[in-house]
Amino acid sequence: MADNEKTPAEEAAARAKEQAEQDALPYKWTQTIGDLDITIEVPGNLKGRDLVIDLKKDTISAGIKGQDPILKGTLPHTIRVDDSTWTLTTAPNNTKQIEIHLDKVNKMEWWPHVVTDAPRIDVSKIVPENSKLSELDGETRGMVEKMMFDQRQKEQGLPTSDEQKKMDILKKFQEQHPEMDFSNAKIN
């Protein structure tokens, strides 16, 4: 077992600690590889004009007028402000929610947290839902699947797809040139 690998018990404890830290935040958030959604519960008597929501390419501030922001800080990566939105919705239990949608600039990156001073999640444990993966366009989906395959291969100490390709090319070359001695060849 590598030094950085955890036992199942340590892994479970790390997950539980991470979940507790996320549950303690005054907002909930979810993400796909391309965007991030934040939900903040607010009193049911509020209207849109009672809120102060400020989305900039690398900062966010959201809250109720006249109070400290519920969510404020520096984003870990940049967003497309023009494609990011917020709405105030009424939940079934008559409370209201601020729903903020952030459009990531980099569509190939998981965020460890919404703002840089919030507790981090372990992004290496994220497994995209297959339905979400199928919604990606062909090229993006191929890149995500390759990243996931390479991640699994690395975890098992096996060659990544690129390393495997190089080994296959070398093997084919060796078969075509049996007269050459490759016993001391180094591949890099």
From TrEMBL:
It comes from Dichotomopilus funicola. Required for nuclear movement. May interact between microtubules and nuclei and/or may be involved in the generation of force used to move nuclei during interphase. GO terms for cellular component: cytoplasm. One of its GO terms (molecular function) is unfolded protein binding. The keyword Cytoplasm applies. Residues 1-23 are annotated as: Disordered. One of its GO terms (biological process) is protein folding. InterPro entries: CS_dom, HSP20-like_chaperone, NudC_fam. Residues 22-115 form the CS domain. This is Nuclear movement protein nudC. Residues 1-20 have a biased composition (Basic and acidic residues). It holds the Pfam family CS. Keywords: Cytoplasm. It is found in: Cytoplasm.
